[in-house]
Structures are given as structure tokens and as C-alpha cells.
Amino acid sequence: MKQLRVQFRSFQDIQEMVDLASAQRFPIWVMDQRCRVNATSFMCLFSLDYAQPLTLEMECSGEEWAAFVPKLTKFAVTEPA
Predict the structure, then answer these.
(1) Distance, CA of 8 to CA of 79 (rounded, Å)
(2) Which domains, and CATH codes, for the chain?
(3) Is 67 helix (H, G, I), strand (E, B) or coil?
(4) Which tens digit of pLDDT belongs to each residue from 17-66?
């Protein structure tokens, strides 16, 4: 299980995430403080709280992770330690 903190700032960001997730062969989930939803579902993604960064969770191999993460850099959040 791999995780990445992300933030979506627009309708286009959400649509792009759905498109990216739908193209993968492994499950991708997006979580806020209260729920976990399928990243391929546009309607489910709209049920999340976008006031805070979200957690993207992927059930993938190391190779899949290495190939997919560069596509997510625009959404990645670096939080202070």
C-alpha cells in the first residue's frame, strides 16, 4: 500500500485525477478525515472535504508506483515536518 498527500484546487484537477486513476490497473483511493472513496468515481470525489489536503492510497507494486507518481506531481502536497 502506497500513500501520497494531494490537494485538488479546481474542477479540472478532479477530472484529471479521475482520468489518471481510471487508466491504472490497480485500485486507487482518495481519503479525507471521514471517508475513503474510489478515485475513478467523479461523484465520489466530490463528496470529500477539499479544505485540507487529502490522502491518495494506491494498492500497487513498486514498479507501478514509480511509473505513476510522476503523473501526480502537480497534486502532491509537501507538508511541514
Answers:
(1) 15
(2) 2-72 (3.30.1340.10)
(3) helix
(4) 999 999 999 999 999 989 999 999 999 998 888 888 999 999 999 999 99
